[in-house]
Amino acid sequence: MHSHLHTPENANCEEIMTMLDECHAQGFLWKALGQCNDIKREVNKCLGAERYERARRNREKARENRKRIEQIWAEERVREGVVAPADTTTTTTTAAAAAAGSAEAKQ
């Protein structure tokens, strides 16, 4: 069972979904005897591909956002004097280690 299928995200599958709707409109026996199963498999395959593509785009966008946030964090650490300006390209784990090292030095 699918949620509402005819959405803008699934526009590439519109033709196959319409074919499935038409098959289901043939009546109960068509569905009961499996006459719509091949079309249903095609709908599932198409929706899976759409979902995969949507997830890929979301992952890429999340990576870009994460990269931007880490750059902002690195700039803030430089302004606070936690990290030397030459180390602005380090990862957060290196910065955390540096912060832990400065905390130990203060003790």
From TrEMBL:
Query: Origin organism of this chain?
Result: Paecilomyces lecythidis
Major place of residence: mitochondrion
Q: Pfam families from the entry?
A: Cmc1
Which residue intervals make up region (Disordered)? Answer: 84-107
Compartment(s): Mitochondrion inner membrane
Keywords assigned by UniProt? Chaperone, Disulfide bond, Membrane, Mitochondrion, Mitochondrion inner membrane
What the record says about family reads: Belongs to the CMC family.
Q: What does this protein do?
A: Required for mitochondrial cytochrome c oxidase (COX) assembly and respiration.
The keyword Mitochondrion is assigned to this record: yes
Q: What is this protein called?
A: COX assembly mitochondrial protein
